[in-house]
Amino acid sequence: MGLEKTIQKKRKIVYLELLRIIACFCVIINHTNSGIFLSRTPDSKIWWVSLTYFFVSKTAVPIFLMISGVLLLGHVDTYRKWSSRMLHIFLDILIFSFFYYVWSMYTADRSVNLIEYLKLIWQRNVTNAYWYLYLYLGILLMLPLFQRLSVNMGKREYELLILVCAVFMGTMPIVIHYMPGAAFSSYFCDPFFSEFVGIFFLGYYIHNYVPVKKEYALAAVLVFGMDILLQVLLTYREYQVDPQQYLFFDERTFITVVTAAATLFYLGRCMEAVLISEWFWKVVGFFGGCSFGIYLLSDFFLDSYYGIYGNLSERMNPMIAVFFYECLIFLTGAAVTAVLKKIPYIKKLL
Protein backbone atom coordinates (compact mmCIF):
# COMPACT_ATOMS: atom_id res chain seq x y z
CA MET A 1 0.00 0.00 0.00
CA GLY A 2 2.86 2.39 0.84
CA LEU A 3 4.55 1.69 -2.51
CA GLU A 4 1.24 2.21 -4.34
CA LYS A 5 0.80 5.62 -2.68
CA THR A 6 4.35 6.59 -3.60
CA ILE A 7 3.78 5.61 -7.24
CA GLN A 8 0.49 7.52 -7.33
CA LYS A 9 2.19 10.60 -5.87
CA LYS A 10 4.93 10.41 -8.48
CA ARG A 11 2.39 10.13 -11.27
CA LYS A 12 0.60 13.24 -10.05
CA ILE A 13 3.89 15.12 -10.07
CA VAL A 14 4.64 13.88 -13.57
CA TYR A 15 1.22 14.95 -14.78
CA LEU A 16 1.65 18.52 -13.54
CA GLU A 17 5.28 18.73 -14.65
CA LEU A 18 4.34 17.40 -18.08
CA LEU A 19 1.68 20.08 -18.40
CA ARG A 20 4.22 22.71 -17.36
CA ILE A 21 6.50 21.57 -20.18
CA ILE A 22 3.66 21.68 -22.70
CA ALA A 23 2.51 25.12 -21.55
CA CYS A 24 6.05 26.49 -21.54
CA PHE A 25 6.71 25.26 -25.07
CA CYS A 26 3.36 26.69 -26.17
CA VAL A 27 4.45 30.11 -24.85
CA ILE A 28 7.49 29.91 -27.12
CA ILE A 29 5.32 28.84 -30.07
CA ASN A 30 2.97 31.74 -29.46
CA HIS A 31 5.87 34.21 -29.64
CA THR A 32 7.60 32.73 -32.70
CA ASN A 33 5.06 31.21 -35.07
CA SER A 34 2.54 33.94 -35.91
CA GLY A 35 4.80 35.72 -38.39
CA ILE A 36 4.47 32.72 -40.70
CA PHE A 37 0.71 32.84 -41.28
CA LEU A 38 0.59 36.64 -41.02
CA SER A 39 2.94 36.90 -43.99
CA ARG A 40 0.85 34.49 -46.09
CA THR A 41 -2.71 34.01 -47.30
CA PRO A 42 -5.13 31.06 -47.11
CA ASP A 43 -4.03 30.12 -50.63
CA SER A 44 -0.91 28.68 -49.00
CA LYS A 45 -1.07 25.36 -47.13
CA ILE A 46 1.49 26.77 -44.71
CA TRP A 47 -1.05 29.43 -43.66
CA TRP A 48 -3.41 26.70 -42.47
CA VAL A 49 -0.70 24.69 -40.70
CA SER A 50 0.77 27.74 -38.98
CA LEU A 51 -2.66 29.02 -37.90
CA THR A 52 -3.52 25.60 -36.43
CA TYR A 53 -0.18 25.58 -34.59
CA PHE A 54 -1.01 29.08 -33.32
CA PHE A 55 -4.33 28.08 -31.78
CA VAL A 56 -2.78 25.04 -30.11
CA SER A 57 -0.26 27.39 -28.51
CA LYS A 58 -3.00 29.64 -27.11
CA THR A 59 -3.67 27.00 -24.44
CA ALA A 60 -0.47 28.00 -22.60
CA VAL A 61 -1.82 30.61 -20.18
CA PRO A 62 -5.00 28.70 -19.22
CA ILE A 63 -2.90 25.59 -18.54
CA PHE A 64 -0.50 27.54 -16.32
CA LEU A 65 -3.45 28.99 -14.40
CA MET A 66 -5.08 25.57 -13.99
CA ILE A 67 -1.82 24.09 -12.68
CA SER A 68 -1.68 26.91 -10.13
CA GLY A 69 -5.27 26.18 -9.15
CA VAL A 70 -4.43 22.54 -8.43
CA LEU A 71 -1.46 23.50 -6.27
CA LEU A 72 -2.80 26.57 -4.47
CA LEU A 73 -6.50 25.90 -3.84
CA GLY A 74 -8.21 23.44 -1.49
CA HIS A 75 -6.11 24.42 1.53
CA VAL A 76 -5.20 27.55 3.48
CA ASP A 77 -1.58 28.67 3.71
CA THR A 78 -0.18 30.65 6.59
CA TYR A 79 0.26 34.35 5.94
CA ARG A 80 4.00 33.83 6.20
CA LYS A 81 3.92 31.35 3.31
CA TRP A 82 1.61 33.66 1.37
CA SER A 83 3.97 36.61 1.78
CA SER A 84 6.88 34.39 0.73
CA ARG A 85 5.08 33.52 -2.52
CA MET A 86 4.36 37.19 -3.15
CA LEU A 87 7.98 38.16 -2.52
CA HIS A 88 9.19 35.40 -4.85
CA ILE A 89 7.21 36.70 -7.84
CA PHE A 90 7.92 40.33 -6.99
CA LEU A 91 11.67 39.63 -7.02
CA ASP A 92 11.33 37.72 -10.29
CA ILE A 93 9.72 40.78 -11.86
CA LEU A 94 12.28 43.15 -10.34
CA ILE A 95 15.44 41.17 -11.13
CA PHE A 96 14.69 39.51 -14.46
CA SER A 97 12.98 42.61 -15.84
CA PHE A 98 16.16 44.53 -14.97
CA PHE A 99 18.16 42.01 -17.02
CA TYR A 100 15.92 42.68 -20.04
CA TYR A 101 16.05 46.43 -19.42
CA VAL A 102 19.86 46.47 -19.33
CA TRP A 103 19.96 44.31 -22.46
CA SER A 104 17.61 46.67 -24.32
CA MET A 105 19.67 49.70 -23.24
CA TYR A 106 22.84 47.98 -24.40
CA THR A 107 21.44 47.09 -27.82
CA ALA A 108 20.05 50.64 -28.20
CA ASP A 109 23.38 52.15 -27.08
CA ARG A 110 21.71 53.99 -24.21
CA SER A 111 22.72 54.36 -20.58
CA VAL A 112 20.87 52.62 -17.76
CA ASN A 113 18.59 54.88 -15.71
CA LEU A 114 17.34 53.29 -12.49
CA ILE A 115 14.46 55.75 -12.01
CA GLU A 116 13.34 55.15 -15.58
CA TYR A 117 13.50 51.40 -14.99
CA LEU A 118 11.40 51.52 -11.80
CA LYS A 119 8.76 53.65 -13.54
CA LEU A 120 8.78 51.24 -16.46
CA ILE A 121 8.12 48.08 -14.43
CA TRP A 122 5.43 49.86 -12.44
CA GLN A 123 3.56 50.80 -15.60
CA ARG A 124 4.04 47.74 -17.81
CA ASN A 125 5.96 44.55 -18.47
CA VAL A 126 9.49 45.13 -19.78
CA THR A 127 9.42 42.17 -22.14
CA ASN A 128 6.57 40.53 -24.03
CA ALA A 129 6.16 37.37 -21.93
CA TYR A 130 6.21 39.06 -18.53
CA TRP A 131 2.61 40.31 -18.54
CA TYR A 132 1.73 36.96 -16.99
CA LEU A 133 3.92 37.66 -13.94
CA TYR A 134 1.78 40.70 -13.16
CA LEU A 135 -1.40 38.64 -13.55
CA TYR A 136 0.00 35.92 -11.29
CA LEU A 137 1.10 38.47 -8.69
CA GLY A 138 -2.48 39.78 -8.61
CA ILE A 139 -3.82 36.26 -8.10
CA LEU A 140 -1.36 35.72 -5.26
CA LEU A 141 -2.48 38.98 -3.65
CA MET A 142 -6.03 37.60 -3.53
CA LEU A 143 -4.93 34.06 -2.66
CA PRO A 144 -5.84 34.13 1.08
CA LEU A 145 -9.43 34.92 0.06
CA PHE A 146 -9.47 32.42 -2.81
CA GLN A 147 -8.13 29.66 -0.55
CA ARG A 148 -10.69 30.26 2.17
CA LEU A 149 -13.39 30.34 -0.46
CA SER A 150 -12.21 27.11 -2.08
CA VAL A 151 -12.12 25.05 1.12
CA ASN A 152 -15.75 25.96 1.80
CA MET A 153 -17.02 25.31 -1.72
CA GLY A 154 -18.58 22.08 -2.87
CA LYS A 155 -18.76 20.65 -6.37
CA ARG A 156 -21.89 22.63 -7.27
CA GLU A 157 -20.35 25.92 -6.17
CA TYR A 158 -17.29 25.26 -8.34
CA GLU A 159 -19.56 24.45 -11.26
CA LEU A 160 -21.55 27.66 -10.74
CA LEU A 161 -18.42 29.82 -10.64
CA ILE A 162 -16.94 28.15 -13.73
CA LEU A 163 -20.26 28.25 -15.62
CA VAL A 164 -20.80 31.96 -14.96
CA CYS A 165 -17.28 32.81 -16.15
CA ALA A 166 -17.57 30.50 -19.17
CA VAL A 167 -20.96 31.80 -20.34
CA PHE A 168 -20.85 35.52 -19.66
CA MET A 169 -17.15 36.26 -20.16
CA GLY A 170 -15.95 33.38 -22.31
CA THR A 171 -18.88 32.81 -24.68
CA MET A 172 -21.01 35.97 -24.84
CA PRO A 173 -18.26 38.12 -26.46
CA ILE A 174 -18.26 35.64 -29.36
CA VAL A 175 -22.06 35.62 -29.57
CA ILE A 176 -22.16 39.43 -29.52
CA HIS A 177 -19.48 39.58 -32.23
CA TYR A 178 -21.81 37.74 -34.61
CA MET A 179 -25.10 38.97 -33.12
CA PRO A 180 -24.62 42.56 -31.85
CA GLY A 181 -28.23 42.63 -30.73
CA ALA A 182 -27.37 40.10 -27.99
CA ALA A 183 -25.26 42.69 -26.14
CA PHE A 184 -26.31 43.32 -22.54
CA SER A 185 -25.43 45.87 -19.86
CA SER A 186 -21.76 45.70 -18.88
CA TYR A 187 -22.74 46.46 -15.28
CA PHE A 188 -24.25 42.97 -15.03
CA CYS A 189 -20.79 41.37 -15.14
CA ASP A 190 -19.06 43.84 -12.84
CA PRO A 191 -19.64 41.75 -9.66
CA PHE A 192 -18.25 38.57 -11.29
CA PHE A 193 -14.79 37.13 -10.86
CA SER A 194 -12.56 37.67 -13.88
CA GLU A 195 -12.15 35.03 -16.57
CA PHE A 196 -8.67 34.28 -15.28
CA VAL A 197 -10.00 33.50 -11.80
CA GLY A 198 -12.56 31.14 -13.34
CA ILE A 199 -9.77 29.30 -15.16
CA PHE A 200 -7.75 29.20 -11.92
CA PHE A 201 -10.64 27.41 -10.17
CA LEU A 202 -11.27 25.21 -13.21
CA GLY A 203 -7.91 23.49 -12.75
CA TYR A 204 -8.76 22.53 -9.18
CA TYR A 205 -12.18 21.31 -10.31
CA ILE A 206 -10.80 19.04 -13.05
CA HIS A 207 -8.17 17.63 -10.71
CA ASN A 208 -10.58 16.85 -7.89
CA TYR A 209 -13.99 16.25 -9.46
CA VAL A 210 -13.51 14.86 -12.97
CA PRO A 211 -12.68 11.13 -12.82
CA VAL A 212 -10.05 9.56 -15.04
CA LYS A 213 -11.88 7.31 -17.51
CA LYS A 214 -10.90 5.95 -20.89
CA GLU A 215 -14.12 7.14 -22.52
CA TYR A 216 -13.61 10.63 -21.07
CA ALA A 217 -10.06 10.69 -22.43
CA LEU A 218 -11.24 9.70 -25.90
CA ALA A 219 -13.95 12.36 -25.74
CA ALA A 220 -11.32 14.92 -24.67
CA VAL A 221 -9.16 14.07 -27.70
CA LEU A 222 -12.18 14.47 -29.98
CA VAL A 223 -13.29 17.76 -28.40
CA PHE A 224 -9.75 19.15 -28.52
CA GLY A 225 -9.40 18.38 -32.22
CA MET A 226 -12.84 19.75 -33.11
CA ASP A 227 -12.26 22.87 -31.03
CA ILE A 228 -8.95 23.70 -32.73
CA LEU A 229 -10.55 23.05 -36.13
CA LEU A 230 -13.45 25.34 -35.25
CA GLN A 231 -11.09 28.17 -34.29
CA VAL A 232 -9.17 27.79 -37.55
CA LEU A 233 -12.34 27.77 -39.69
CA LEU A 234 -13.88 30.73 -37.88
CA THR A 235 -10.63 32.64 -38.30
CA TYR A 236 -10.71 31.85 -42.01
CA ARG A 237 -14.19 33.37 -42.08
CA GLU A 238 -12.83 36.45 -40.30
CA TYR A 239 -10.08 36.66 -42.92
CA GLN A 240 -12.66 36.70 -45.69
CA VAL A 241 -14.37 39.65 -44.01
CA ASP A 242 -11.17 41.63 -43.33
CA PRO A 243 -7.75 40.22 -44.38
CA GLN A 244 -5.99 42.92 -42.34
CA GLN A 245 -7.70 42.22 -39.00
CA TYR A 246 -8.86 38.67 -38.70
CA LEU A 247 -7.53 37.43 -35.36
CA PHE A 248 -10.70 38.01 -33.34
CA PHE A 249 -10.30 34.56 -31.77
CA ASP A 250 -6.81 35.38 -30.52
CA GLU A 251 -8.16 35.76 -27.00
CA ARG A 252 -6.97 33.41 -24.28
CA THR A 253 -10.14 33.79 -22.18
CA PHE A 254 -12.60 32.86 -24.94
CA ILE A 255 -14.47 29.60 -24.43
CA THR A 256 -12.83 28.26 -27.60
CA VAL A 257 -9.33 28.59 -26.13
CA VAL A 258 -10.28 27.53 -22.60
CA THR A 259 -12.07 24.41 -23.89
CA ALA A 260 -8.94 23.34 -25.78
CA ALA A 261 -6.81 24.01 -22.70
CA ALA A 262 -9.19 22.16 -20.36
CA THR A 263 -9.26 19.05 -22.55
CA LEU A 264 -5.47 19.10 -22.85
CA PHE A 265 -5.24 19.53 -19.08
CA TYR A 266 -7.54 16.55 -18.54
CA LEU A 267 -5.51 14.42 -20.94
CA GLY A 268 -2.43 15.35 -18.94
CA ARG A 269 -4.20 14.23 -15.79
CA CYS A 270 -4.96 10.90 -17.46
CA MET A 271 -1.22 10.23 -17.31
CA GLU A 272 -1.97 9.03 -13.77
CA ALA A 273 -3.52 5.93 -15.29
CA VAL A 274 -0.56 5.18 -17.58
CA LEU A 275 2.41 3.08 -16.54
CA ILE A 276 5.40 5.39 -16.83
CA SER A 277 9.04 4.36 -16.60
CA GLU A 278 11.44 5.85 -14.07
CA TRP A 279 13.41 7.32 -16.98
CA PHE A 280 10.34 9.21 -18.14
CA TRP A 281 9.78 10.58 -14.62
CA LYS A 282 13.33 11.85 -14.50
CA VAL A 283 13.23 13.55 -17.90
CA VAL A 284 9.83 15.17 -17.30
CA GLY A 285 10.85 16.13 -13.77
CA PHE A 286 14.01 17.82 -15.05
CA PHE A 287 12.37 19.85 -17.80
CA GLY A 288 9.28 20.57 -15.71
CA GLY A 289 11.51 21.87 -12.93
CA CYS A 290 13.23 24.15 -15.44
CA SER A 291 10.04 25.39 -17.10
CA PHE A 292 9.70 28.60 -15.09
CA GLY A 293 13.31 29.53 -15.81
CA ILE A 294 12.83 28.72 -19.49
CA TYR A 295 9.82 31.03 -19.52
CA LEU A 296 11.77 33.84 -17.82
CA LEU A 297 14.65 33.58 -20.31
CA SER A 298 12.68 32.73 -23.46
CA ASP A 299 12.38 36.25 -24.87
CA PHE A 300 16.15 36.75 -24.59
CA PHE A 301 16.94 33.58 -26.51
CA LEU A 302 14.14 34.33 -28.96
CA ASP A 303 15.93 37.54 -29.94
CA SER A 304 19.39 35.98 -29.77
CA TYR A 305 18.54 33.10 -32.13
CA TYR A 306 16.35 35.02 -34.55
CA GLY A 307 19.16 35.25 -37.09
CA ILE A 308 19.53 31.47 -37.05
CA TYR A 309 15.80 31.10 -37.66
CA GLY A 310 15.99 33.56 -40.55
CA ASN A 311 18.75 31.56 -42.21
CA LEU A 312 16.92 28.26 -41.67
CA SER A 313 13.60 29.55 -43.03
CA GLU A 314 15.34 30.46 -46.30
CA ARG A 315 16.64 26.91 -46.71
CA MET A 316 13.74 24.74 -45.56
CA ASN A 317 10.02 24.59 -44.89
CA PRO A 318 9.26 27.49 -42.50
CA MET A 319 7.28 25.24 -40.15
CA ILE A 320 10.29 22.95 -39.73
CA ALA A 321 12.55 25.97 -39.32
CA VAL A 322 10.35 27.55 -36.64
CA PHE A 323 10.06 24.24 -34.75
CA PHE A 324 13.86 23.92 -34.70
CA TYR A 325 14.04 27.56 -33.53
CA GLU A 326 11.56 26.85 -30.71
CA CYS A 327 13.40 23.71 -29.61
CA LEU A 328 16.66 25.66 -29.54
CA ILE A 329 15.09 28.33 -27.31
CA PHE A 330 13.57 25.69 -25.02
CA LEU A 331 16.69 23.53 -24.67
CA THR A 332 19.06 26.46 -24.19
CA GLY A 333 16.71 27.90 -21.59
CA ALA A 334 16.63 24.55 -19.79
CA ALA A 335 20.43 24.27 -19.80
CA VAL A 336 20.95 27.80 -18.47
CA THR A 337 18.21 27.35 -15.86
CA ALA A 338 19.80 24.09 -14.67
CA VAL A 339 23.09 25.95 -14.14
CA LEU A 340 21.42 28.92 -12.43
CA LYS A 341 19.56 26.59 -10.06
CA LYS A 342 22.91 25.54 -8.64
CA ILE A 343 23.55 29.11 -7.42
CA PRO A 344 22.19 29.35 -3.83
CA TYR A 345 20.19 32.60 -4.01
CA ILE A 346 19.29 32.51 -7.68
CA LYS A 347 17.74 29.03 -7.49
CA LYS A 348 15.07 30.35 -5.12
CA LEU A 349 13.84 32.62 -7.90
CA LEU A 350 13.46 29.75 -10.38
Automatic annotation (TrEMBL):
It comes from the Bacteria. Belongs to the acyltransferase 3 family. It is a multi-pass membrane protein. Residues 14-330 form the Acyltransferase domain. The chain crosses the membrane at residues 12-31, 51-74, 86-103, 129-146, 158-178, 184-204, 216-234, 246-267, 279-298, 318-340. Pfam families: Acyl_transf_3. GO terms for cellular component: plasma membrane. Its main location: membrane. Signal peptide: none annotated. InterPro entries: Acyl_transf_3_dom. GO terms for molecular function: O-acetyltransferase activity. This is Acyltransferase 3 domain-containing protein. The keyword Transmembrane helix applies. One of its GO terms (biological process) is enterobacterial common antigen biosynthetic process. It is found in: Cell membrane. Keywords: Cell membrane, Membrane, Transmembrane, Transmembrane helix.
